[in-house]
Amino acid sequence: MMKLVLNCFFLFILSFSLYAQKTPELTIDLSEFSFIKTIDSVNTEVGVLKDTIVPLDIKADYWDSTVYNPYKDVNFKFPLQLQFKDSTYYSPIGKNKVVTSRYGWRRGRPHKGIDIDLVTGDSLFAMFDGIIRMSRYTSGHGRTVVVRHYNGLETVYAHLSKYGVKENDTIARGDYLGKGGTSGNARGSHLHLVVNYKGVSINPEYLFEFNDQNRIRANELWVTKKWTRPIVHNSKRQSKIQLLLSEKEAITSLIKQQSIYVVKSGDTLSRISKRNNVSIASLCKTNTIKRNSVLRIGQKLVIEK
User: Fold this and answer.
1) Which whole-number Å values give the CA distances from 34 to 51, 62, 143, 210, in the listed order?
2) Rounded distance, CA 33 to CA 22, Å?
3) How many whole angstroms separate alpha carbon 72 and alpha carbon 76?
4) For FRET with 93, which of 16, 52, 168, 209 sits at 20 to 30 Å CA-CA?
């Protein structure tokens, strides 16, 4: 019996060797894999480290296609580190990007993404490789596609007129997602683009340049709460971008800087906010005033950044 088993084993080895000689060189796409450091089992006594390839299972945790935010019970600490393997992203639309409304406070409510102008029927594309977590109608956003990416981010494409993908599809950057439109609570046709990390929105313009260069601002970025709070941004203009490229810079930035502004003749909250690059909502909250409060010449307002 043992002799028969050994003969079968040697026949298998011989067949595999012949197949390998006739088979073209095998190539492996590493875009869905990650390198981790592990102890080499052969060299455990000296603790030699080696690179081991392990698959990135981005569907392992909090994968739910029925809800927009499956991370509602998750808390994480700031600052947050994000990494990108590329220096550019794929444009979500096939023409020049015109941002019509930015991340920030808008009409008394948080606007947690940016609006990019388009014509109903324009094609939409994935910014990065990933897997479709959601492709269905949601309240407010209308027809929505959510892509989870391999660095932990999720990009959201809202107000579609037609789906081009289904849930659990694996996609590459630049793949077709659907058609833009006006579904949901949309004032005119546009793409509402949201960037989330574990359910928390991040100002997309902190991470990406929305011009014809399609640049990612840095391969490694640190995100503080400032870039996840619409109330400290103005939807009518781009916030001043100050990149945090190290943990030290991020921690230092957490120290709030305050200054005093003295109200002058003709000043309004809108004029003061533009002059000091802070949102009206932030001005009101910091100084405990309302949007319709009467400003007095000589009144001192705290500007907090």
Assistant:
1) 10, 20, 32, 28
2) 27
3) 11
4) 168
Residue type for position 148: R
pLDDT in tens, 195-205: 999 999 999 99
Residue 49 phi, psi dihedral angles, 5° rounding: -90, 140
CA 17 – CA 246 distance, rounded (Å):
50
| pLDDT for residue 236 is more than 70 | yes
Q: Say what the pTM is.
A: 0.72
How far apart CA 15 and CA 23 sit, in angstroms, is: 12
Torsion angle, alpha carbons of 56, 60, 61, 67, to 10: 110
**In angstroms, rounded to a whole number, what is the distance separating the alpha carbons of residues 72 and 246?**
28
Letter for the amino acid at 281?
A
| HSE-CB of 290 using CA atoms within 13 angstroms | 3
